[in-house]
Every structure is written in C-alpha cells, then in structure tokens.
Amino acid sequence: MKIFLDTANIDEIKKGVDLGIIDGVTTNPTLVAKEKKDFKKLVKEICEIVKAPVSAEVISLDAEGMYREGLELSSISEHVVVKIPFTPEGLVATRKLTEKDVSINMTLIFSLNQALLACKAGARYISPFVGRLDDIGHNGFELAKNCQEMILSYGFDCEVIAASIRHPQHVIEAIKNNIDIATLPFSILIQMMKHPLTDIGIEKFLEDWKKANS
Ligand code: G3P
C-alpha cells in the first residue's frame, strides 16, 4: 500500500520523506490556508522535496475556471496532480484536463456512483473520504473497498486514495481492504510507529546489556 501525507506543512513533509516511506502528498484548501504561504510557491517547494505525486486543489467551481487553474497548477511541476472536487462541472474539467495529460485526483467522493463517474471522466486517483462518512454513521471503508473492487473489475486506470483518515485503525482497514493508497495526517504516521512493548523491549535489552557489561 502506498502512503501519502495529507498535509501542506513543510516540516512534516521533510520529516516524512526522511523516514523513507512516503509515496506522495495530498493537500486541500484547508491545509494550505493553515500554512499562510503563497500557494504556488508552496506547491513547488513540496514537489521539490517529495519528487512524487503532490495533489493541489482548484478553487473555482465552474468547469472553465477549474480547467484554467488545473493547467496553471500542472505547469508548476511534473509531480503535480490536480485535485478537483466531485461535481458535474468537475467532471467536465477532469475530462478536458485529462485530454491535456494532466493527472487528476477527484476528491470529495462519498458514493460508488460518484466514483464510477470520476473514473469514466479519466481521473487518475479518486479520494473517498472515509472519516467524514464514519462521522455521519456510514461505513467509510465499505465505500473505499467498493471503489477498489470496481476499478479492478472494470480495469480503470485509477487508484483509490483513502482520505479523511482519522486514526491508526483506519490505516489497518485500508491495508485489510487492499486499498491502493492511504493519505495520512502526520500525527497518524507518528501513532502508527508507536507501541509500548517496543519501548519496553528496548529498555530491557539495554538494561540487560549494561548488567552484563558492567
Ligand atoms: O485531504 C482530504 C481529507 O483527507 C480531509 O480529511 O479530516 O478534513 O475529513 P478531514
């Protein structure tokens, strides 16, 4: 499974990349707004650090505006994936940008029907928001799993990004359901690495080593 970081924070991205296990980055307008930096410069900097797919989202709501923004964003770096919200206008923009060889991550996917339409429009990635579905009493991973199965059975050239991941158990669900990619807040990556028995084990090994060598 690929691991993307869901952040626009340079320190977090550098730390993740240093770990050597990051396959890409996703951002969204909320994450970018937190950084209080020039959007395009920030995207360029992230791409230079990650050297792998970096999703940058359009703000326009009309197809023409999304298309224009998408072309601008994709000109920043070969690594940019243009993130487009799922709407009818978004489908039109996705098709047009795909025809220009721009990779699209269609975001805010909350149903299998939306996922099918995104794939048919040519999206390279689709992002079902598992956490936000769980928030309203639905099963987020049921959708992610169905998206994954649909892509396999019809042979779409598209990868599923499980987004809106809220805790390490969500990552385990992604693994168990063979989801292509999970995009994680940095805090969850940290949580994934921790286990009290690992810490206790290291402490005990060192203690025994010191006893034997004192
Ligand atoms: O990047 C999209 C997604 O991961 C947002 O997550 O926690 O705001 O629902 P959240």
From TrEMBL:
Source organism per UniProt: Calditerrivibrio nitroreducens (strain DSM 19672 / NBRC 101217 / Yu37-1)
Reactions it catalyzes: D-sedoheptulose 7-phosphate + D-glyceraldehyde 3-phosphate = D-erythrose 4-phosphate + beta-D-fructose 6-phosphate
Enzyme Commission code(s) on record: 2.2.1.2
GO CC annotation terms, alphabetical: cytoplasm
Biological pathway: Carbohydrate degradation; pentose phosphate pathway; D-glyceraldehyde 3-phosphate and beta-D-fructose 6-phosphate from D-ribose 5-phosphate and D-xylulose 5-phosphate (non-oxidative stage): step 2/3
Recorded coiled-coil stretches: none
Family to which this protein belongs: Belongs to the transaldolase family. Type 3B subfamily.
Protein name: Probable transaldolase
InterPro entries per the UniProt record, alphabetical: Aldolase_TIM, TAL/FSA, Transaldolase_3B, Transaldolase_3B/F6P_aldolase, Transaldolase_AS, TSA/FSA_arc/bac
Subcellular localization(s) per the UniProt record: Cytoplasm
The protein's enzyme class: transferase
Active site feature: 83
